[in-house]
Structure formats: C-alpha cells, structure tokens
Amino acid sequence: MRAIITGAGGFVGQELVRQLRAQGRFDRLVLLDARLPPGLAGPDAELVEGDLADPSIRARATGQGADVLFHLAGVMGGTAEQDPALSRRINLDATLDLIDAVAAYGNVPRVVFTSTIAVFGAPLPDHVDDDTPLSPAMTYGAHKLMVEIALADLTRRGALDAVSVRLPGILARPLGPSGMKSAFMSEVFHALAAGKPFTVPVSREATIWAMSVERCAANLVHAAGLDGAVMPTTRAVTLPALRLVFGEMVDAIVARTGADPALVTYVPDAPLEAQFGRLPPLTAAAAQAAGFAHDGSTEAFVAAALRGIGAP
Amino acid sequence: MRAIITGAGGFVGQELVRQLRAQGRFDRLVLLDARLPPGLAGPDAELVEGDLADPSIRARATGQGADVLFHLAGVMGGTAEQDPALSRRINLDATLDLIDAVAAYGNVPRVVFTSTIAVFGAPLPDHVDDDTPLSPAMTYGAHKLMVEIALADLTRRGALDAVSVRLPGILARPLGPSGMKSAFMSEVFHALAAGKPFTVPVSREATIWAMSVERCAANLVHAAGLDGAVMPTTRAVTLPALRLVFGEMVDAIVARTGADPALVTYVPDAPLEAQFGRLPPLTAAAAQAAGFAHDGSTEAFVAAALRGIGAP
Fold first, then answer.
1. CA-based diameter of chain B, in Å?
2. Are A48 and A61 in contact (CB under 8 A)?
C-alpha cells in the first residue's frame, strides 16, 4: 500500500507520518514538501522536496499513483489573505492538478483533504452544525471550499474517493514566525512549560475550538480507512473540535506543568477576542457518526498538546 | 460606459446584446465568442472571435477593462459531464483568469455571471428556496458553484462587484444539435408554431422551471445595474423561474399559435420525467426582493418564448 503525503514536513504532516508508520498499513510513503526535515527519511519513504505548483515536482510525487493521497500542503490563512494570487496558484490550481494526477492513475484512490472551519465564514451563527451554510469570509476558506466541491464531484464521477476534513485550530504549534494572529494559543503552552510569564490577549472567558496535533493526525488516519457505510454523503466533515474556555485550558496547563499560576495575565484585545475568542457551540454529528473524535476533555487535550511540544 | 459580453453569439448572449443596445447605457460593447453572427456588428462593438481558454483572446477582450463584465460563455451541462477536463479548462480556469483580468484593471467592475440551478443538485428537495443546501450533482453545476464562491470572495476583497445569477431552463432555444436532453422543451414550441406533430416525452402533469430568453436577458441587464441596497449578501441569486405544468404550457402554445391540439401526444419517458419533469415549488425571495422577475404567467411566458423564435 502506497500513500502520498503533501505537507509532510509541516506541523500536522510530521505527526501524520509518525502515526502512519506506527500503524503499518502503508509500506511506501511518498513525502512531499517545500522542505523535509531529515528525521522523516526511512527505508519506506520517497522524499520529494519542491514547490507543489511545479508540474515536475507533482509528477515525481504522483508518477506511480497511490492508494491514498493525504493532501495537507497549502498556503496558510494569513498568507492567502495577503496574496490571493498565490493562494489561487497553490490552494486551488496546483491542488486540483495534483488531485487530477492521482485520479488519472485509475485506481479510484482515497483522497484525504485538510479543509478548514473557515468555510463557515464570520461571524459564526450562535450554533454551528452540519446544516450551517458555507459562506467563507477569507480567501483561504473560499479556496478550500472550492476544492471540497471539486472533490465531491470527482467522487460522484468515480474518479476518486474523497473525504474533506475541516480542521479547527490545531495546538500547540511549534514556536516561530507562523504569521498567524492566533499564535498566542500555542505560545501559552510553550511559555508555561518553560516557566515563563505570558500575557493572554483574550479574556479568561474566551471560547475556542481546539484539537491536539496527535488527535488531528489520528482523525486523518481514520479518514484514510473510512468505510463507505458511514461515509457522509457530502464527502466533507467538520471535525468534532473541543470547545474550550480559555481560562480553563490555562488552568489545566498550570496543573499539568506545575507552573506558577501568577505567570499568566489576561489583557484582552477586542479584535482578537472577537475573531478568536467567541467560538459558539459546535455539533459535528456527521463526523462523530463516522467515527471522528475530539480529544475527550480539556485535561486530555492539554496533556496531548504538551506531549506534542515535548513538554513533560 | 463599456461592457464585455462573453458568449455574445449564443442564444442568451444575442438577446442580451439586443437589450443592452435598446437600453443605451453602454457606448462600447466588447463581444467575445467562439463564433459571432454577423448581425452583432455595429459602430459600438468590438468583436473578439476565439477560444476563451486562449490568453491572447482574453487579453484582447479585457485589455481596456470594463464597467461591466457579463460572463455567459461556457461549456454546457451535457458536454461538461462528458468532458470534465474541458469543463475545468473553460468553466473554471479560463473563467477565473478572465475575472482576474477584468479585476486587475482596478475599477471594481460589476461582474454578472450566469450560474445555474444545477448548483442545487439532484434529487431536489420538496421545496427550493434561498436556504436550500448547495450540492451539485453534475460537473457543470460544481464548476459554476466554485466560480460563485470565487466571485463572492473577490467581491469581499473589493476587487470587483459580482452578482451570480442562477438560470433555470431558458426557452425556446433555436432548433439544432444542442446535445441537451431537455431539448424537447424547446422543440414543442417550434413544432406547434410550424403546425407539425410533436410527441412530448414527459407527462401532461410534468412540472418544469422556465423563463423566456427575453426575460432572462432582462434579468441580466437588471443585475448589471443592481443597487447595493438590495444586493443579496451572498452575491448569488436564484432567478424566480415560473414553475409550469407542461400540459398547461402546451395548451397555451396551442391557443396562441392556433395549432391543432391533436398534433400533441404525450409518451412519458420515465428517466426524462424524473430528471426534467418533477421540479418542486421554488421560492426565490432574495432575487424577488432585489427586483429580479419571472415571466408573470404561463400565457405571458409562452408569448415571449414564441416571440423569441420569431413565431407570430
């Protein structure tokens, strides 16, 4: 069994590769990314470093087809918003070309596509569920939704067998310039794990949707093996993220790391609170019926997120 | 004022050009199509014949920008379903390139895009309204919906000012090989106007959504001038088609043309009846609030459709 993983060098991609190796279902992994960390190499792996928009790079990755394509690569939300032409080139055009290339192999491959909760747009209604209208308010979400529609159509045609998985915020990301305005959600884990003070730019009462990278990758692995009997007819599922109260998440980080609670100060920034701190209740019935899962509890989520950054 | 009309040589395009000239709002009309009938030429017109997928053809059409782009050109539903790669090239890629090119001129042009009721998919629910989920069941509808989403996003960005107008069946089309399985809906007009017998492949009780080409073009002209105050927030409207009972439409054709009612025989074909003859009630509230209109009555629709084919 052969899998192609685009974005394999990324935050979610590396964890996905780790879990796929632990699972042992695939004996060949084609790993594609602009840069691949050396740790991903292995006897089961073909490494393809380069630009997804380059046809020769795509051809190297897809030349032998695949049983499963995990398509994680893409331009992130903030970058897409600043450079919509780049987002079109990567998140739409190159993505559709990649998908056509794996479909052309003729074996009706499973395609697991990482979409986003940004397909719902903003502001969100008081409750989000499987009937919430899709109305993206960012170029990133618009291009992801366009690909969801293309994948559903190609699935209907029998060209491939797609599952689009809409990701919430995945925590805790590694430190470093991500260009994401939501970076504070990850930074609070790193700060407290290192015993450093941290100023939270939203209120204690802020509500977020979150998932650990470990759980996120497990959901992608689940999507790869998802059986037709529980497959959502739309071929797109909103992952059942945990809705967390920010202050309760911080309390759980403090409890687990033994950090001094006095390290944390809340200085809410109104725009950040409005954009990231007012997430409504989410009912992800279709995803849960299909066996996708959240982290279980604030405590379990925090434990997984801390494991993800190598904290005790 | 300058307008670009793609698909200007087509069934709807020619009527749109006629109405735009009658209206007199535009002093320059750039008419683009694979073939343009000689009758479209005029001192106000720049004729661009060629393939929309050819960058040099698009550049000729968009080189001076436009106040309004009417984008009607595209691969039709049956052809798109048979050749999805062609549909992607024309209905998606070339369409997005065209749109980017007019937006690049920097004057925030109005873009009127002919979308389709095929965005709703099949089978339709018992009632269609502005909350009906979008779930295309044809490649044609999928690509049209993807462009709707791109246009809504470009509008949000301030790059252009779009209205996507979802067309129902437009009648009566000229005779000739259209490749459309719904051709019988137009052929019945031609047959009875010529006093020839016609076998209808659906039942008398079949229900269809229809609009005359005259009314369709008038709605596109309306979209070009639509004011911000009544603009649907989604930037996409389902035109308020008339829901007609097929036998009542035939009775109205007979009454208007003086044809012998015995010329008509109903021999329902189950698949055609299921695909084209079971259209549910439609409430197009957003479109009606924005001033879009249907033909008014079965009789008025039939009169307009007969005018459209030059019948008395």
1. 59
2. yes
β-strands B242-245, B207-212 pairing: antiparallel
DSSP letter assigned to residue A229: G
- At residue B179, the pLDDT reads 65
Pairing of strands B169-171, B242-245: unpaired
Count CB neighbours of B85 within 10 A. 11
**Minimal Cβ distance to A84: which of B85, B131, B157:** B157
Query: Residues 6 or more apart from B92 whose CB is under 8 A from it?
Result: B143, B146, B147
Tens-digit pLDDT profile for residues B151-197? 999 999 999 999 999 999 999 999 887 667 889 999 999 999 999 99
Contacts of A146 in chain B (CB under 8 A): 146, 149-150
Rounded CA separation A150/A144 (Å): 10
pLDDT at A232: 87
> How far is the C-alpha of A260 from the C-alpha of A249, rounded, in Å?
15
Q: What is the pLDDT of residues A272-286, one digit of tens each?
A: 999 899 999 999 999
Instruction: Give the residue numbers in A contacting B (CB under 8 Å), as ranges.
Output: 84-85, 88, 92-93, 96, 100, 131, 133-137, 139, 142, 145-146, 149-150, 152-154, 156-157, 234
Domains of chain A are: 2-168+212-238 (3.40.50.720), 170-210+241-283+291-308 (3.90.25.10)
Beta strands in chain A (DSSP E): 2-6, 28-33, 45-49, 68-71, 110-116, 161-167, 169-171, 198-200, 207-212, 236-238, 242-245, 264-266
- Residues of chain B contacting A154 with CB distance shorter than 8 Å: 84
Point out the residue among A149, A152, A157 whose CB comes nearest to the CB of B84.
A157
Please judge whether A142 and B135 are an interchain contact, meaning their C-beta atoms are less than 8 angstroms apart: no
Q: Could you give the dihedral angle defined by the CA atoms of residues A107, A112, A113 and A116, in that order, rounded to the nearest 10 degrees?
A: 160
Contact (CB, 8 A) for B200 and B185: no
SS3 B295: coil
* pTM value > 0.90: yes
Q: Is-catalytic flag, B140?
A: yes
Task: Identify the active-site residue in B140, B189, B198, B292.
Answer: B140
Residues of B in Cβ contact (< 8 Å) with A136: 149, 152-153
Amino acid sitting at position B83 = D
Q: What is the pLDDT of residue A179?
A: 65
